[in-house]
Amino acid sequence: MKTKAAVLMQQPGEWEVVETDLDGPRDSEVLVRMVAAGLCHSDDHVAKADGKIQHFPYCGGHEGAGVVEDVGPGVRSLKPGDHIVTSFIPGCGRCAFCASGHQNLCQYGALIMHGSQLDGTYRMRYQGQDVARSSLIGAFAEYSVMSEWSAVRIPDHVPLRSAAMLGCGVPTGWGSAVNAAQVTPGQVVIVMGVGGIGINAVQGAAHAGAGHVIAVDPVPLKRETALKLGATGAFSSIEEAAEFARSITNGQGADSTVVTVGVLNGEHLGQAFDSVRKGGVVVVTAVAPMTVGSIPVSPFMLAMFEKRLQGCLYGSMSPSGDIPRLLAMYENGQLKLDELVTTTYSLDEINVGYRDMHAGRNIRGLIEFPVLPR
Ligand SMILES: NC(=O)c1ccc[n+]([C@@H]2O[C@H](COP(=O)([O-])OP(=O)(O)OC[C@H]3O[C@@H](n4cnc5c(N)ncnc54)[C@H](O)[C@@H]3O)[C@@H](O)[C@H]2O)c1
Ligand SMILES: [Zn+2]
Ligand SMILES: [Zn+2]
């Protein structure tokens, strides 16, 4: 079948919306009609060449929601008509990581930059050439063929537009605070960078009972939104936030700082490291360009102050269990989703959406797809 898709032809590059050919689903794969896809900064890292990929054209998009239209042989967990949210790591359920409750570290996650399907072959073509797709998904397309491991079923009555951010931003941010920082009641938490990921770290920290959730972002809209969604204070720089944290902790500093800036560099990590107390934890969720080779953290202080640096992928979540759990919290009114989407775009407007992200005009921009006859 034919499908419109936003692809990169080179790095760095802009998204080009082109008509592609899409094969039907093979073993254990499903065809999904995308309804909405979030403009996560991680896809922009690819466009800006922060992370090098090997294969072009490359269709972006890893955070989305849609409807299963067809299933390939052997699919057991989904049927046509099911509503799904994408999982940007394909949780197999059987590898040592999945089996021990760390589906975010599934061994098949190694393929997310490669762009093929699990069997190493491609399902999309442009002018006869195989198209690599982000995270085995390629949500920046009207239709996608993906492994059933990349699709998490959700109840039919939940609006797919609301659910789309559960593909990445919500679990990644929420889990960065709840799972990786392990925020407990009364703690002082700094969230550095309030985009689609950071706003959910704010929600997670508040939900875990933090006494102070201190949001940091140079953009006023981000600070205002953070204050509406659980932050108790907001500053335009980490230095001011750290100073405030020390002022309320007898000079000690924050219990944890979650780093969710758009493009991570060593300086951010040094600042975050200085902002936490002895025994405090710095959660590193933001992604640095692959060329950033080291971080300016004092090894002496690391040991003597027993500080911890904790990396965090996909909120340390197991998407097939945690996405439905977060959705239930949304339905109970405990987690905000609709307030996170500031502007919606058509697929053709994708570059406008990313420009808006860089200009600080959005918490999360969302592509909405029209319903097309097949
Ligand atoms: N680890 C993971 O599993 C994972 C998953 C998804 C995204 N990410 C990464 O998380 C990061 C955030 O993604 P996003 O989609 O929310 O990006 P975004 O661009 O929407 O938000 C980043 C925010 O950081 C703010 N910011 C920039 N510099 C800052 C600074 N020095 N101090 C405070 N705030 C600052 C920006 O104003 C912006 O509001 C990206 O690096 C992305 O690649 C990681
Ligand atoms: Zn993402
Ligand atoms: Zn696995």
How would the blueprint of this fold be written?
Blueprint lengths: L1 E7 L7 E7 L6 E10 L2 H7 L10 E2 L4 E8 L11 E4 L9 H4 L24 E3 L2 E5 L9 E5 L3 E4 L5 H4 L5 H12 L7 E5 L5 H10 L4 E5 L3 H9 L4 E3 L2 H10 L6 E6 L6 H10 E9 L14 H6 L3 E4 L7 H13 L9 E5 L4 H9 L5 E5 L6
Parallel strand pairs: 4-8, 11-12, 11-14, 12-13, 14-15, 15-16, 17-18
Antiparallel strand pairs: 1-2, 1-4, 2-7, 3-5, 3-9, 3-18, 5-6, 6-10, 7-8
Helix pairs in contact: 4-5, 7-8
Bound molecules: nicotinamide-adenine-dinucleotide and zinc ion (2 copies).
One zinc ion binds next to helix 2.
Model description:
This protein has 374 residues and is α/β, with parallel strands linked by helices. It has two domains: 2-167 and 337-368, Alpha-Beta Complex (Quinone Oxidoreductase, Chain A, domain 1); 173-313, Rossmann fold. Helix content is 25%, strand content 26%. The strands form three sheets. Strands 3, 5, 6, 9, 10, 17 and 18 form a seven-stranded mixed beta sheet that branches. Strand 17, helix 11 and strand 18 (364-368) form a beta-alpha-beta unit. The longest helix is centred in the last third of the chain and has 13 residues, at 319-331. It binds nicotinamide-adenine-dinucleotide and zinc ion (2 copies). Nicotinamide-adenine-dinucleotide binds at residues 40-42, 45, 168, 172, 192-198, 216-219, 222, 238, 260-262, 264, 268, 285-287, 312-314, 357, 360.
